[in-house]
Amino acid sequence: MITNYKTENIRSCKYTFRLGEIFRHTSVDLVDVSQERFPQLTEISLPYVLQPGEFVIGRTIEELDTPLDLMSIYAASSLSIRIGLNILSGGINDPGYRGNAIFGIHNVSQNKIKLFYGMELLHTAFLELKGKAIPVQTRYMGGKIL
Amino acid sequence: MSVLAYSELLKRITGIDDHQLEEPFKILSQNNTTQSRCKIIKGLALYEPISIGNLLRKSELPRGGGSYLTVRKYFLSLEKAGLLEKYLLHNRAVWRFSKNGEHLRKYLLT
Q1: How close B1 gets to chain A, by Cα (Å)?
Q2: Which residues of B touch A130 (CB under 8 A)?
């Protein structure tokens, strides 16, 4: 269900992910999803000091292999809220998804915040499904960012 | 629809059923398992099968005669309780987890 996991991160009723990699958008004239015009990404090495207002995309160390009888819901860790990071996520991990969890990290505080390898910013709760799910088909399978 | 709680997450993610850990932990607590002995047991899970001397060396613990005898006595008590077993490898006594200790070994490796 999860590879590269850490047993200590299995908590009361959730799993807490660890930050593995971060990426930054490079600026483009226009992002137009209908024309498949996406921003380019540059990987940034960790640790990294996130400036106030700066936004990066995070990829977890853990990889999910979600069985068809489960789904999971992503949520920001309370740590991220306390230090002023807004964690943006797709919200739902679909049955059948394989790959890392991808999330946005936006510094909404007035302070610089250091991001480091293994930082716990996102967690997920798994829900057992009733009935049969259809495995998700997505271009982002495998933890692709764009 | 229900949310998976700790024991179910542990089982699904690591393959370890917490009920299967109750007996091994009971044995450890009944056999004077101190903090440094926890380190030895974790080392055994990592390096088994291994002799006590090599285990102490790899775990970076004192290797004097007293330490060796204390660990040997501890391992013998765990062997008697069915958690560990020893056998001869190239005429040296090496230790490993027994079948009853397999779930504990898996848990210690995670």
Answers
A1: 5
A2: 1
Divide the 146 residues of chain A into consecutive groups of 10 and give the mean pLDDT of each group. Answer: 90 94 88 86 93 94 93 93 92 90 94 95 93 82 75
Residue ranges of domains in chain A: 2-128
Q: How far apart are the C-alpha atoms of B6 and A18, rounded to whole Å?
A: 18
Domain A2-128 has CATH 2.30.110.10: no
Please tell me the class of the B20-108 domain: mainly alpha
Check pLDDT > 90 for residue B110: no
Within its chain, how far is the Cα of B13 from the centroid? 21
For residue B106, the surrounding DSSP H or E stretch is helix B102-109
Closest CA to A110 of A56, A52, A54, A49: A52
- Tell me: ipTM over 0.95: no
Chain A from 87 to 146: CB within 8 A of any B CB: 125-130
